[in-house]
Amino acid sequence: MTDRTPLRADLSAHTRAPVLTPGTGGYDAECGGYQLLDPHTPITVLAATRAEDVRAAVSLAATRGVPFAVQATGHGRVTPTTGLLISTRRMTGVRVDPAARTAWVEAGATWRHVVEAAAPHGLAPLSGSFPGVGAVSYTLGGGLGLLARRYGLACDHVRRFDVVTPDGRARQVTEHREPELFWALRGGGGHVGVVTGMEIGLVPVAHVYGGSLLFDVEQAPDVLDAWRRWTSDLPGELTSAVTVLTYPDLPGLPDPLRGRPVAHMRVVHCGKADEGRELVEPLRAIGPVIGDTLAERSYLDTGAVFDEPEQPHPYLGDNVVVRDLDPQALAGLTKAAGPSAPVLTVVGLRHLGGAIAEAPRGASAVGHRDGAYLVSVLSPVEGAERERVRGLHDAALGLFTDAALGRWLNFTFRALNPAEMRSAFAPGDYERLRRITDEIDPGGLLHTGHGGVSGE
């Protein structure tokens, strides 16, 4: 599709939303987002403000055979479109029903929007480590969040999706109405349509005990294995993770961090604060603590636990879910994030189990719920470094081949081929998702974050 004028004119005639093309004001900002690697370069952008805008755009794309993609915050974008981009970042409405403990979340709302709406009622969503992530896109990938070991995944708490399927139909999808689409949308990665809103359950959490402990890896070289041993017998109320990276030797960074490999142990305990303190205390024996932010805090302040960067940047990342962690593999993972690494690499471990492993109410497409840990790698990258970074990531994750179960969609920041996509699902579920996708989008018009699931 090279003739952009008729599409722009039709979109303007059928919606109230701004319609942008290359060279018009706001186009670049609308195509941007948090991920700066491989930006969208669409012939037309629809900056949707309501669900009807989305329906009209998808319907026009379907009629014309124009490929399209949807973007809210752009954190997980890896497969850009050159056709139509539907931007939902203006659709940020959140409505909380405190009596029912539910929230209605529009397509472009971030977890920050949802947390702020729920907190006055003593409630919380199953949000992730970074409040700026889009709530809907996060949930479509499963949603491994701060309270996961106690309450499960974000997708487990969805009651209803409003979605526009690639044929332009607006559908209300629940467990009992359109059960196949409901299954696919809960953890399947968003391959079956553009979600305009979702109803989610909230949990009664107003405060947590959480934060981070920082260790100099040179003073505590077995820090990852020490964390592994600590996680072997923890209650579901405690969800934790650890990351290791080597900070650059730059002015402005605190002296304990400059030029050093540092381990950040992140903890969220949703029980009594005293119980959280007691459970975390053994970590302090790992080595000298060079930073400590552990405290009882409002759920509004949980973004400070991981304290992830707000500034958009280009990056690549991958992961593997494992049944256990071998100490020798952990030593190799630590080295991959050390000062000798040729590019900055952040390696991470997340503790699974607890409620994650329990069968949720209503079916979901999420795979590998029986995994014990998730191992992740992420690097900032420019175009020329792409292949080298991929090689380094493959080598780091290859240390865990013997224990590998597959990957997790939410922590995969690169395009996946069909075999790699298959690895994110239980046996048979990838074929089920393919079948649903082929039926709902036979022309393969919808471009999703990790690439399509149709075709081999």
From TrEMBL:
Domain named FAD-binding PCMH-type: residues: 38-205
Protein name in UniProt: FAD/FMN-dependent dehydrogenase
GO molecular-function term, one example from the UniProt record: oxidoreductase activity
Cofactor: FAD
Cited InterPro entries: FAD-bd_PCMH (IPR016166), FAD-bd_PCMH-like_sf (IPR036318), FAD-bd_PCMH_sub1 (IPR016167), FAD-bd_PCMH_sub2 (IPR016169), FAD-linked_Oxidoreductase (IPR050416), Oxid_FAD_bind_N (IPR006094)
Lineage: superkingdom: Bacteria
Lineage: Bacteria, Bacillati, Actinomycetota, Actinomycetes, Pseudonocardiales
Keyword annotations of the record: FAD, Flavoprotein, Oxidoreductase
Assigned protein family: Belongs to the oxygen-dependent FAD-linked oxidoreductase family.
